[in-house]
Amino acid sequence: xxxxxxxxxxxxxxxxxxxxxxxxxxxxxxxxxGMLLLIYASVVLFQSMLVPLSRMNSFLSLTRDIIFxxxxxxxxxxxxxxxxxxxxxxxMDYLLIRLDYLIFGxxxxxxxxxxxxxxxxxxxxxxxxxxxxLPVALGIVLxxxxxxxxxxKALFLILLCFYLSYVGYILxxxxxxxxxxxxxxxxxxxxFLVSKPVQDLLNLLxxxxxxxFPSGHTGIALTVLFLSYRYARNLFRWIAIPVLLLIxxxxxxxxxxxxxxxxxxxxxxxxxxxxxLYYKFRERKNGHPLFQGKxxxxxxx
Length: 301
Hints:
Layout: H1 7-25, H2 33-53, H3 58-87, H4 93-104, H5 108-111, H6 118-129, H7 134-143, H8 148-171, H9 177-180, H10 195-206, H11 216-231, H12 233-252, H13 258-286
């Protein structure tokens, strides 16, 4: 029997191999390069193993479809800390700050201080945190809603958006306004009960990384919103307002410059456009629609 990889499987393997090659090339500059090489090789190995194993039982199928994609995204993101600053040591915050000033006539993160309120801070901090649940929620709705073809395409596009944002971090490393503009901020970003513990938890989980541009939160949230509108309209109605609040929160909570948000919007456009082109290419290559019958992603004799 012939084993065929889905686009999502191939994408994770290809991006891990890209990071493997990048780390190997800059191994003399990257701290703990050997450990990172092991991590990327492990992602490739486990992803490859899950392709045949996922047919054995429902748990392995769920692992391939949802659990492992979540793990791979988190592991790869966490690995970028030493990679980004070793490959591209020049922080670009000065450029992003300048672009914000040229476009908006000032600094949007500072402008937001005029409307700052503890209750609003709590609400927007919670909205910002929904980013971690949006892709999983869409995946669960599609996987268990008998929409296998839609799930496969959504998984590919969401992973593509994540990985493209990681490339952006390497090309344009930046800490973000909460660090680079701290000397200009006149008010402390304080909430009532929620904001501080949530922010501390995010800082603990993410650490200090150069991941400001493009805004992955904006890109992923808008990609999920687009896909939910296309494939899961009921979910779209539930997440539309949280997504809009999330985008506002990226600047209000000082995680991103306004130009990062613009970059996040462009990231969504590039993700959807390039993903659609890739699917059309595969359709022409296979000579039939991707998701007819049992599907190209299954075993074939």
